[in-house]
Amino acid sequence: MYSKLKKLLLIVLLLQLSACYTVEGVNYLQTNQDKLRIPLTPTEYKVQPSDILNIKVQSRDPDQSAFFNSSNTENRNIQPNPAALFLDGYSINKEGTINLPIVGELEVSGLTVAEITELVQSEIDKYLLNATVQVKLTSFKISVLGDVKNPGTNYVYNAQSTIFEALSAAGDMNLSAKRKDVKLIRQVGRNSMVVNLDLTSPFIINSPYYFLHPNDVIYVETSKPNLFRNNIGILTLILSAVSTGLLILNFATN
User: Fold this and answer.
1) Statement: 52-137 belongs to CATH 3.90.79.10
2) Sign of dihedral through CA atoms 112, 113, 116, 118?
3) Which residues are CB-neighbours of 198 under 8 A, at least 6 positions away?
4) Half-sphere exposure of 3 toward its Cβ, with a 13 Å CA cutoff?
């Protein structure tokens, strides 16, 4: 009886040891160097149909500039919600154009925000003197799915958001998540592109996918070894309960 209990306890101990996570499996940006300089390669996003632009025109005559704005400029200090940004913004239609009051239709698909600002500014200058145009992309949202603490969609108010910022907003990856094969799904025109990223490599910072684009989807898979560890944890609990029951039974019979 004692030999069987010893074997069972030994099995439980070995299973617990095998369920431990290694540093190599969970750490980001792994390197042996104390200091590593990696150049950044940010990419400029070119707007596409269904994107939403916020365009504000300001001039010395607020009444005149108000004709070009889709909403009033009062309460600027109040943080708008995504629904308000959608209702007040200019949605790019499937032809790639927006309809600006008085100015009319402008083709903006395939342009950067800076290029759209210059385009709108040149049109507004035909109607107003000393006017200032501000253009912002307000439909910048990122979805993080899979093996993270808080999966879901978050709106980003930052033109240079990174993949680590998106994971941070999702509560970070769970220990069981794959870090060497994170999938990034990006819409390019009418196609979707799927890219595999290794977040354990410091050179992910130099990747053209390190900086996110609007509507990017990050999918984090659960690794097979970590699924095995999770199953081992359940099995360990069962074996622990069995060994405890056998000890109690052995004590009672003696």
Assistant:
1) no
2) negative
3) 179, 180, 181, 182, 204
4) 0
The span from the first CA to the last CA of the chain, in angstroms, equals: 11
Q: Does domain 31-43+140-222 have CATH number 3.40.50.150?
A: no
pTM of the model as a whole: 0.75
Provide the residue ranges of all domains of the chain, joining segments of one domain with +: 2-21+225-253, 31-43+140-222, 52-137
Encode the chain (254 residues) as per-residue pLDDT tens digits: 556 555 545 554 444 444 455 556 678 989 888 888 888 888 889 999 999 999 999 998 888 888 888 765 444 455 567 777 777 889 999 999 999 999 999 999 999 999 999 999 999 999 999 999 999 998 899 999 999 999 999 998 888 899 999 999 999 999 889 999 999 999 988 889 999 999 999 999 999 999 999 999 999 999 865 545 555 555 556 556 556 655 565 666 66
